[in-house]
Design goal:
Chain lengths: ~110, ~120
């Protein structure tokens, strides 16, 4: 069974601070995605990383896929209250394309 | 922007009752999925559907669950006899392709409460 472990599960920081969320697995994934989920809504895709070692930037968010394609990180620079939400990583294997989700990181950014 | 639409947004039912959750995927998508999220837990894969048949299902998707695409636009999840532990958010998703960098679009979810 493929599992994705996210850490930390909860993170409360002040506006302007930097943070990193980690997503780790013992399994290799063909690609990995990061989602953000607001209360009462479905997950919304932020980014997909496909190549080992790949780094993608989305404004203040930097996503990295590990060289071995078993792990990923999300780094947010100068966090803002609008970044508050649940961040989910999800891996895709080559078999069937289903997403395997991590348990999520609940981020709270206080003004 | 195209979106996946789910109805109802919230359904309350008695244990043992049948429930049908409905989804309208994005019109040119070919792959359809149901996921669920029990309160406080991770999003879990239930089933994927392509070319009018199930392509993959998880251990959760037992004989009490079924999916159907009855009319070419709706994609439904039926739970025949609901149990308390079926209470969860159920998310429908669709995509244009299955493997590789699969981009799923999720609906807003249907909250099922089983009493």
């Amino acid at each position: 069974t493929q599992l994705l472990e996210q850490s930390p599960q909860f993170l409360s920081i002040q506006e302007g601070e930097n943070l990193t969320v980690y997503c780790n697995s013992s399994s290799v994934f063909s690609s990995l995605q990061w989602y953000r989920q607001e209360p009462g809504e479905g997950p919304v895709l932020l980014v997909t990383v496909v190549t080992g070692g790949e780094v993608k930037k989305l404004k203040r968010l930097t996503f990295q896929f590990g060289d071995a394609r078993k792990d990923s990180s999300l780094h947010i620079t100068a966090a803002q209250p609008g970044d508050t939400g649940l961040y989910l990583c999800a891996g895709i294997n080559n078999q069937g394309g289903k997403l395997i989700f991590g348990q999520g990181t609940e981020l709270s950014v206080k003004p | 922007e195209p979106e996946v639409t789910q109805t109802p947004s919230h359904q309350v039912t008695q244990m043992g009752q049948e429930v049908i959750l409905r989804c309208v995927p994005i019109s040119n998508h070919l792959y359809f999925y149901w996921y669920r999220q029990i309160l406080g837990q991770k999003v879990e894969f239930l089933v994927s559907f392509y070319n009018n048949e199930i392509s993959e299902k998880s251990e959760i998707f037992d004989d009490q669950f079924s999916v159907e695409r009855p009319d070419g636009s709706n994609f439904t999840l039926k739970i025949r006899s609901t149990k308390l532990e079926d209470s969860a958010m159920y998310f429908c998703a669709s995509s244009a392709r299955e493997s590789g960098a699969n981009v799923l679009t999720f609906g807003a979810g249907s909250r099922l409460t089983v009493l």
